[in-house]
Write a structure and sequence with these properties.
This protein is of the alpha/beta class. It contains eleven helices and twelve strands. The chain has a single domain, classed as Rossmann fold, CATH 3.40.50.300. It starts with a helix and ends in a 7-residue tail after the last strand. The structure holds adenosine-5'-triphosphate and nickel (II) ion.
C-alpha cells in the first residue's frame, strides 16, 4: 500500500532553526502482528493480524473504543508486554530488524529512546518531580549518547526541538504549566534522536485548546521528519494531525485510509458509527458494547452492532483494498 508520505508534496525537511536531523528513508512495516494473553481460565485476544506501514514524515492515528487493543499493539512494538503475552507476526524497522524477535538487549540498547521515542500519556508520569527539567534532559542525553560531550548544550537543543524555552530548564516539573510540562516530556522523548514517536493518548484529560496545541506540536515534529504513531479516542484530534487513520475494533484493524477520505467516505460501518457519534455530526453514539476479547465470535466481531449485518457476517471478512487503503467488511459503504 502506498503511503500518505509518498503522496504528500511537501517533503520532510530538517528544521534549520533547531538543527533537527532529517529522518528520511526510515520505515516501520507491521505485518500480521497478533498478541494474546494467556490467563489461567481464559485467553485474551488483544491484537489480531495488525498490518500497516509507517514512514518517516508521516503520522498514522490508531483509533477505536477503549479496550480494543491499541496500547497493547504499541507495547508490542516496544517490547514492553508482560511475560504472559504470546506475540506473532513481524514488525520490521527499515525492512531489516524485527522488533518482535530481536530480543530485549537490542530493544534496550538500540531501539527504545534511540529509534522509537515514547511521548507519554501524562507528562507527570515521565518527569521526575525532584529534579529540574534541565537535569533530566542532561542525564537522558548522556545515557543515550546524544550529549556529544556537552550535556548543557544538548539539553538546550532538545528543549528547543520541543519548543520548550531555555528559561524553563532550571524549573521543577510542578513549576510548569500543563502545556510546558507536555513539552518537557516531549523533549525527553526526543533526547535520543528517535525517528519514530509513539504517542499513546497524549492528550487525555487536557482541555480542547491544549489538545489542539499538542496535536499541532506533533504535526510540527512530523513535518520535521519524524514518523508518528498516534493512539487516541479523539477523532477530532486525529483529524488535526494524522495523514492516515487506522480504525481498530475488537483487536483488529477494520479500516485504514487517508484521513480526509476516512472522514468523507467511511467504508466500514464501524467507522461510520464512530463519525456519527461526533458532536459536530449526528451526535448519535453507537448503542451496545464490543464483544469480550476472551470470547470473540468466529465471524465479524462488529456484526452484533452493525446496521448492515447479513448472513455473510458469520464468516470473517478479509481485508480488501480500497483506492487508498483497506477495509475488512463484507458490505462496505460507498462501494
Ligand atoms: N497483561 C495483560 N493481561 C491480560 N489482558 C491484558 C493485559 N494487558 C492488556 N490486556 C487486555 O487487552 C485488551 C486491550 O487493551 P489495551 O490497553 O490495548 O486497550 P486500548 O485500546 O489501549 O484501550 P484504552 O483506549 O482504554 O487505552 C484489554 O481487554 C485489556 O484488558
Ligand atoms: Ni490504551
Amino acid at each position: 500500500m502506498s503511503t500518505a508520505a509518498e503522496k504528500r508534496t511537501r517533503a520532510p525537511q530538517p528544521d534549520d532553526r533547531t538543527g533537527h536531523p532529517g529522518h528520511a528513508g526510515h520505515s516501520l512495516g507491521v505485518d500480521r502482528l497478533s498478541v494474546r494473553f494467556r490467563l489461567p481460565d481464559a485467553t485474551v485476544t488483544a491484537v489480531t493480524d495488525a498490518t500497516f506501514t509507517l514512514s518517516a514524515g508521516e503520522c498514522l492515528a490508531l483509533v477505536g473504543e477503549s479496550g480494543c487493543g491499541k496500547s497493547v499493539l504499541a507495547s508490542a512494538l516496544l517490547g514492553l508486554l508482560p511475560g504472559n503475552a504470546e506475540i506473532r507476526g513481524r514488525a520490521l524497522l527499515d525492512n531489516d530488524l524485527d522488533l518482535l524477535s530481536c530480543g530485549e538487549r537490542v530493544l534496550a540498547n538500540r531501539i527504545r529512546g534511540r529509534q522509537i521515542g515514547l511521548v507519554p500519556q501524562s507528562p507527570a508520569a515521565h518527569l521526575t518531580p525532584v529534579r529540574t527539567v534541565g537535569a533530566q534532559l542532561r542525564e537522558t542525553t548522556s545515557v543515550l549518547g546524544t550529549a556529544g560531550g556537552d550535556a548543557r548544550a544538548a539539553a538546550r537543543r532538545y528543549a528547543g526541538r520541543a519548543r520548550l524555552g531555555e528559561q524553563h530548564l532550571d524549573r521543577y516539573p510542578h513549576q510548569l504549566s500543563g502545556g510546558l510540562a507536555q513539552r518537557a516530556a516531549t523533549a525527553l522523548a526526543l533526547a535520543g534522536d528517535p525517528w519514530l514517536l509513539l504517542a499513546d493518548e497524549p492528550t487525555t484529560g487536557l482541555d480542547r485548546p491544549l489538545v489542539d496545541a499538542t496535536m499541532d506540536e506533533l504535526a510540527r515534529l512530523r513535518d520535521a521528519g519524524h514518523a508518528i504513531l498516534l493512539i487516541t479516542h479523539d477523532l477530532a484530534a486525529a483529524r488535526r494531525v494524522a495523514d492516515r487513520v487506522a480504525v481498530m475494533y475488537a483487536s483488529r484493524i477494520v479500516e485504514i485510509a487517508p484521513t480526509a477520505e476516512l472522514f468523507d467516505r467511511p467504508r466500514h460501518p464501524y467507522t461510520a458509527a464512530l463519525l456519527d457519534a461526533l458532536p459536530e455530526r449526528a451526535f448519535r453514539p453507537l448503542p451496545g458494547f464490543p464483544p469480550e476479547l476472551t470470547r470473540l465470535p468466529d465471524g465479524c466481531a462488529f456484526a452484533a452492532r452493525c446496521p448492515r449485518v447479513d448472513r455473510r457476517c458469520d464468516t470473517l471478512p478479509p481485508s480488501t483494498p480500497t483506492p487508498d487503503g483497506e477495509v475488512a467488511c463484507h458490505h462496505p459503504q460507498g462501494g
